[in-house]
Amino acid sequence: MQEADARPPVTARRLILGIGLAVLIADLMTKQFMLGWIFDPPRRVEILPFLNFAPVWNPGISFGMLADAGGMMPMLLTALALGVAAWIVWKAPAFRRLERIGAGLIAGGAVGNALDRIRFGKVVDFIDVYVQTWHWPAFNIADAAITVGAFFWIVSLFVEKENGPT
Question: Coil, helix or strand for 151?
Fold first, then answer.
């Protein structure tokens, strides 16, 4: 780790925790709003010619993956999500700048969906993006944050220096 570029562990963790908390709050607030608006009673709301809000209960992970796994899968996914979030915070000082941003997005999204699994046994999804009759699997703010976070992480591999945190 280079002294000139290194950030103290507390600062790195605060950045990740701050981003993660912002994602978590946005995720929980939008899900709570949608539970009252489109889930009870269930209804689809057209927003744009390619975007609806539609009630979907997802027993899997982001974008419906592993939805048919059943059994202990919700508990395993919850434990995995919380474990990943804890690992991200612990490893924060070793991450480069874009990795930290991505890590915060991933951690916040993972915890948001884990809390749904703890509360409901499945995840609240409501964003329905489509083209004509083809629909992308429904998702939520947490899923979007995880996806954007992974993108930031990948970009950091190509953009940031390989010689340590910045």
Answer: helix
Tokens standing for residue 75: 């508990």
Q: Say what the pTM is.
A: 0.85
The catalytic residue among 27, 116, 128, 143 is 143
For 57, the enclosing helix (H) or strand (E) is: strand 51-58
Q: Is residue 61 predicted with pLDDT exceeding 90?
A: no
pLDDT digits (tens, 9 = 90+) for 63-88: 555 555 556 777 787 888 899 999 99
Neighbours of 36 (CB within 10 A): 8
Of 27, 116, 125, 128, which one is the catalytic site residue? 125
Active site residue 128: no
Q: Is 143 a catalytic residue?
A: yes
CB contact at 8 A, 109 and 145: yes
CA distance 131 to 109: 26
Question: How far is Cα 7 from Cα 42, in angstroms, rounded to an integer?
Answer: 48
